[in-house]
Amino acid sequence: MQPDLFRTPPAGGDYAAAFSATLLKPGREAPTLICGPAGKAAAKRFAVYRNNVTVSLIDALAAVYPAVQRITGGEFFRAMARFHVRETPPSSPLLFEYGRDFPAFIAHYPYAGAMPWLADVARVERAWLDAYHAADTAPLGASDLARAPSERLPVLVFSPHPTTRLLRSSYAAVTIFAANRTDGPIEEIDASEAEDALITRPDSEVVVRRLAPGQFEFLSALMAGQELGKATEAAIGAHSDFDIGMALMTLIESGACTSATCGENT
Amino acid sequence: MTTELTAIADRTSSAPRFPAPSVAGLAGTSCKPQHLQAILAGPKPRGFFEVHAENYMGAGGPPHRALEAIRRDHSISLHGVCMSIGAPQPLDRAHLARFRALVQRYEPALVSEHLAWSTHGNTFFNDLLPLPYTEATLATVCDHLDEAQEAIGRPLLLENPSTYVLYRESSMSETDFIRAVVRRAGCGLLLDVNNVYVSATNHGFSAAQYLADFPLEAVGEIHLAGHAEQTDDEDGPLLIDSHDRPVADAVWALFESVVVRAPAIPTLIEWDGEIPEWSRLQAEAAAAQSILDRAGLDARRSHAA
Question: What is the ipTM of this complex?
Answer without folding.
Answer: 0.92
